[in-house]
Amino acid sequence: MIFSTLIEAIAQILHMILNLYMWVIIIAALISWVRPDPYNPIVQILSRLTEPLYYQLRRRIPTVFSGIDLAPLIVIIALQFLDLFLVKLLFGLARSL
After folding, report:
1. Which of 16, 41, 76, 82 is the most exposed place for a label (fewest CB within 10 A)?
2. Sorted alphabetically, which Pfam families does this protein's record hold (predicted)?
């Protein structure tokens, strides 16, 4: 009982973190369309949260096609996969205990 509740709590927190990071990526992508001031603190925070992951992705696969960077879209799809797979797996594990 206690262990299954702990696993459910971990799954719920993981779901919230993945959702929050997905929204950070969406907001950063939308802001990048309007050429924001790079010295703005919000822009700097968004860049620090997204660029390390984009850098790792861009090193492994090409993400720019016809001048459009698809790295945010690829990361969002990966986050959605993690959310659907890991979170549901953890919830299923909690129910089986």
Report:
1. 41
2. CCB3_YggT (PF02325)
